[in-house]
Design a protein that fits this description.
By secondary structure, this protein is α/β, with parallel strands linked by helices. It has one domain: 3-Layer(aba) Sandwich (Rossmann fold), CATH 3.40.50.1820. The chain has eleven helices and eight strands. An eight-stranded mixed beta sheet has the order 1-2-4-3-5-6-7-8, sandwiched between helices. A hairpin with a 2-residue loop joins strand 1 and strand 2. Helix 1 packs parallel to helix 7 and helix 4 packs across helix 5. The longest helix has 16 residues.
Length: about 280
């Protein structure tokens, strides 16, 4: 794992590399269920929706691999309520609402079915999307997420119940403020994410079993979700593949907080994703 200085520099480089200006106008907004939602479109091909993690942006989660994915797909990268460029709608966040927002965005874009890749909290939104809007999801990638409270160690919930703004990684704060220089909006994002996890309710095994989309479950061997939980999801899902990769929470995809600039794992991970989406 890189030092704090290296990680911060990486985050700022990612923000600069994929800001709306450098994206040649690909940053856009849509009015979605009363929310002004930001999204970007990169590349051409079959649609691939990217859903970032909690406290994050498109770039802090996916900046390391987005260019490679856009070589073969029309990447639709979304920023969910209160994150990055997207406004807060004045009510608590939920995975259900986020999934409904993504479904509505795709309807507005006239996309009947897309591959959906969600990381961490974005993976929980992707799970809910596949349950509540199955026709929207062609193939599903669930990365470093859990569907039930027992998917992580009990200490995770103790820490979440006592979460403080000062606990939020500075790298995420800096990345948010580089997009939206509003400290009140940053605090709102933190509060929305913390409260959503403090009130987290598990999906049932039957809800997970209901997902018919071919699904790739992927996590690191030293991730937040336990490896056993990844195996559990793999066994529940009717059409699943499983990959447990060396690494921590998101390091295998180059997520900004855990990225190792010397690692070749993100490149190998992109190959794995491409092969799964081609099957």
């Amino acid at each position: 794992m890189p030092s704090a200085h290296v990680a911060a520099a990486l985050a700022l480089m990612l923000v600069a590399a994929f800001s709306p200006l450098s994206a040649q106008g690909r940053g856009r907004y849509a009015s979605v269920n009363g929310l002004r939602m930001y999204y970007e479109i990169h590349g051409t091909g079959r649609p691939l929706v990217l859903l970032h993690g909690g406290g994050s942006t498109i770039t802090t989660t996916f900046g390391g691999i987005l260019p490679a994915l856009a070589r073969t797909h029309q990447v639709i990268a979304v920023e969910l309520q209160a994150h990055g460029h997207t406004a807060d709608r004045g009510v608590p966040s939920s995975f259900q609402q986020d999934a409904d927002d993504v479904a509505e965005l795709l309807a507005q874009l006239k996309i009947d079915g897309a591959d959906v890749f969600g990381f961490s909290n974005g993976g929980q939104t992707a799970l809910q999307l596949a349950i509540a809007h199955p026709r929207v999801v062609r193939r599903l990638i669930l990365a470093s997420m859990f569907y039930s409270r027992d998917g992580v160690d009990p200490g995770f919930w103790t820490a979440m119940d006592n979460a403080k703004f000062s606990d939020m990684p500075q790298l995420y704060k800096d990345a948010f403020l580089a997009i939206n220089n509003d400290s009140a909006a940053l605090l709102t994002m933190f509060t929305r994410d913390a409260q959503r996890m403090q009130h987290f309710q598990s999906w049932t095994a039957n809800q997970v079993r209901s997902i018919q989309a071919p699904t790739l479950v992927v996590l690191g061997d030293r991730d937040v979700p336990r490896p056993e939980h990844g195996v559990e999801m793999y066994l529940l899902l009717p059409h699943a593949r499983l990959a447990i990769l060396p690494g921590t929470h998101g390091s295998y995809l180059g997520e900004a907080l855990t990225a190792d600039p010397t690692s070749g794992t993100p490149g190998a991970f992109v190959t794995l994703v491409e092969e799964f989406l081609r099957e």
